[in-house]
Amino acid sequence: MPRGRYSLHDPHDHTPLADEHFQCAPGPSGWRYVSQLTGPDGDHAGSVDLTLDALGRPLRLELHAASWQVRGAALDGVTWVRTDPTGTHATEGNVRAHAFTGTSPAFLVATARLLRLTPSTAGTRVRLVAFTDPVLAPRTVDQSWALVDRETHPSDNGPLTVDAYQVTALDTGEQHTVHLAGDVVLSAPGVELEDLDSPPSDLD
């Protein structure tokens, strides 16, 4: 069960946004990731709880940020309920999309798990609902993912396979690279792996 800490920053100007203290592990249903976020001032800034089924679909998602809350799951595409800080107003949404995404590195692992790509330069299109900070506003995004490189490196715990994905935003054409080892993000725009207490889990 990997435990560790990611630092999150603005990918454009590198402004620190939060530290995400996480743990994740394969389970009976598929994979689960839980984390707590702290802001640059050290105060609690939110949480993530994501459970995937064996096919990589979101069985359950719960996000908290700035007193806003989102609960979601794969249902007729993806369905979610977003609740305001007072708890008096809840808005339901549904989009014909494949899964969710957001600032948490958990969503990069989840998308890779959903697509199960083999090494190729050809991209696979995926539609995601992104929840944007700080108020978890939903936005539908289309991306293309390609597994462009796979390398195996020696480590103290045996061979470590690192996958490099090229992710393209289809509305802007902007591209970036995401490096994953099992269920841990090694590097991605706005994400740095700062601490890891145990090796990544193999999700294959």
Structure description:
The chain is mainly beta. It has one helix and 15 strands. The protein has one helix at residues 106-115; strands spanning 3-9, 16-26, 30-38, 44-53, 58-65, 68-74, 78-83, 90-95, 99-101, 124-132, 137-153, 160-169, 175-181, 184-188, 191-196. Strands 8-7-6-5-4-3-2-1-15-14-13-12-11-10-9 form a 15-stranded mixed beta sheet, covered by helices on one side. A hairpin with a 3-residue loop joins strand 2 (16-26) and strand 3. The two termini are 15 Å apart. This is Glycolipid-binding domain-containing protein.
Give the termini separation. 15 Å
H/E order of the elements? Answer: EEEEEEEEEHEEEEEE
- What percent of the residues sit in helical stretches (DSSP H or I)? under 10%
Number of helices: 1
Question: What portion of residues belong to β-strands?
Answer: over 45%
* Number of β-strand runs: 15
Q: What form results from the Cα inertia axes? A: globular
Which class best fits the helix and strand makeup? mainly beta
Could you tell me the mean pLDDT? 94
Strand order of the largest sheet: 8-7-6-5-4-3-2-1-15-14-13-12-11-10-9
- State the major sheet: 15 strands, mixed
pLDDT below 50 for ≥5 consecutive residues: which ranges?
none
Gyration radius (Cα, Å) is 16 Å
Oligomer: single chain
Protein name: Glycolipid-binding domain-containing protein
Organism: Streptomyces griseorubens
